[in-house]
Every structure is written in structure tokens, then in C-alpha cells.
Amino acid sequence: MTVSPLTGDTAAALGLAPGALPLFLREEWRGIVGEGYERLAVLDKDGKAVAAFNLHRTRRAGLRLISHPAFNPHCGLWRRQQAKNPAKAVGEVKKLHTALAEYLLAQDGMVHLAFPPEETDLQPWAWSGFKVVAQWTYRIDLGQELAAIRAGYADKQRSAIKKGRAGGQVQPTLDPERVLRAVRSTFARKGKGLDEATTTALLQAFLKPGTGFAFIAVENGHDTAAAFCAYAAGTCYYLLGGVDKAHASNAAGAMAVDACIEQAHGLGLRVFDFEGSMLPEVERYFRTFGGTPTPYFTVNRAPFLTEVALKKKLRHLF
């Protein structure tokens, strides 16, 4: 197997209908992420694409870093399943991940790359000297009745949403600025910088019918919270949210998220993914929506001296 750039139409190269292309392999990401973004294909001995994934090459504190792109919870790996025999199928997966590990070992810089939850056999990376680390997201099975999904919310969350809807409302929006205002408010409150150019590009690319949706909680005439999701190939991802604490009730954010879950269910999607839940305060909030804790794996490697230095702050990864 060989790894090479995939520059043309991804769906055509993989032999997929456009609607079957996973969200994080959509063409829009080339324009959203910008410089350093790469779409790569894995080719078999006949030159046929058997897999595709994304990388983002950046610099952090002067160090080269290879990672999954911004707003992507993982590298978006898609692979063609060919073998029906279980033993042969496992062998194919190991062969693919061995090729990927060899490719990244030959690259210059640190590696921190996450894989989709479906990729559970990353043993070849460990054999190649990478540290394989589990992270978690929450996922809701949308195949249930909506009432059953909401019954899985924490009692306090259900009560807060009910009370919030009595005094406010939730509106769909296709206006990126309404979403951005709520996101800016949250970032400012937490003292974090927001990459407005990338965030705006993300909203402009996916906040449209057929690819994404957003809901705004409106209370006492103010937009108090926003939640934005994008979807493809049966999975909906919660990508952005924010709350204007100066005007919001305790239920504002939850009302917007609940509306997103309802919309994803109504569209007939299979899974609602909260796109990673590793920060304790974020995990506690996402947990209240009753999803299933779902592990996904990252592979991590750095030059020896760099790795020693990184252990002070990132011991869980390096």
C-alpha cells in the first residue's frame, strides 16, 4: 500500500455517491482549514484507492505538528471493507494501519492524530512506537423514538428545558452571525481566543439545508444561546455552541442542543455525536443528554527530546 495526495473529487476517487461521503471528507474542508491541509489516499498495488483521510500540518511553539484539522474530531479515515472472512478482514485493517504508521514515521515533526470511533484496532501504531491513547465522545442512537431519547436526559436537564421553553423559544437560523455572537460570548467569558476566520468559513460552508442547521434560544427579546451541527452519511456532529450568560437562563444552551437533536432525528440520521467530551466541565454537560460514552483513539509521537519536554504538560499524550 502507498499513501499519496488526493487532489481531485474525493467521492469519485473512492467510488462513492456524494451523499455517502462522510462529513470530514467533504470538499468544503479544503477551503475551511486552508494552509497546511492535506487530503490523502491509500492505494493498493493496482493503484485503487482503498482509504482516505485528512492531515493538517502546522507549527506550535516553533515545532512542526501533524494532526487532524480544526473542527474535526478525528482524521476522517474512510476505508473500503473488502474481505468477508473475519480473519482476513482483521488482516486488511492491520495492513492499512501499518502503512499509515510507516508513512507518518517518515514525516518530520510531532504527530497527534485521532481516528473515528469505528477504528478500534490501532495495534500496528503501538508496534511502530506510537503512544495510543483513548479519548471519549458522547453519541446518541437516533434510531429510538424521540420521546425515548429525551427520557434519557438527566432529570434536571429535562426540567430546565421544560421551564425554559415556557419563558422563551427556540428558532432555526441560517444566519452565521447569530451563531457567532453566542460563540464569541462563550470564548470571551472563558478568556480564549476565537479563530473567527475559520469559524466563519465553517458556518458559511455547512449552515445550509442538506448539510447543517443551527438553533437559537431567544429569551426576553435576546438571542441567548446557539447550537450548530453539520451532518453527512447518517451522522450528525455538534460542532459549535455558545451562551450569552448576561441574558440567558440556565436552560438556554440545553434548549438549543435539544432542538438540534430533534432536527437530526427528524432528518432520519442514525447518530448524534457531541464531537469529543474530554474537558471535565464539557463532559458533565454533554452527559446530561443521555448519550453513550464512546471511545476513540489518538496516536502520538514526537522526537525524543521534544517528547521529554512535552511530558510536563501533556503526559497523557506523550
Rg, nearest Å: 20 Å
Number of helices: 11
Instruction: Give the overall shape, derived from the CA principal axes.
Output: globular
- Please give the alpha-carbon distance between the first and last residues: 28 Å
Q: Estimate nothing, just give the exact number of structural domains.
A: 2
Helix content bin: 25-40%
The CATH architecture of the largest domain is 3-Layer(aba) Sandwich
Which superfamily, in CATH terms, is the homologous superfamily of the largest domain? Gcn5-related N-acetyltransferase (GNAT)
Overall pLDDT level:
91
**Largest beta-sheet characterization:** 13 strands, mixed
Question: What would CATH call the class of the largest domain?
Answer: Alpha Beta
Order of helices and strands: EHHEEEEHEHEHHEHHEEEHEHEH
Task: Give the helix/strand class.
Answer: alpha+beta
| Percent of residues in beta strands | 25-35%
CATH topology of the largest domain: Aminopeptidase
- Strand count: 13
Q: List low-pLDDT spans.
A: none
Can you walk through the features of this model?
This protein is globular. Strand 2 and strand 3 form a beta hairpin. Helices cover 36% and strands 29% of the residues. The chain has helices at 10-14, 28-33, 86-105, 123-127, 146-151, 155-167, 176-189, 196-206, 252-266, 280-287, 304-314, and strands at residues 2-5, 37-43, 49-60, 63-67, 78-79, 110-114, 131-141, 168-173, 212-219, 222-232, 235-243, 271-273, 292-301. Strands 1, 2, 3, 4, 5, 6, 7, 8, 9, 10, 11, 12 and 13 form a 13-stranded mixed beta sheet that branches. With 318 residues, the protein is of the alpha+beta class. Helix 6 crosses helix 9 (252-266). It folds into 2 domains: 2-136 and 295-314, Aminopeptidase; 143-269, Gcn5-related N-acetyltransferase (GNAT) (Aminopeptidase). It is built from 11 helices and 13 strands.
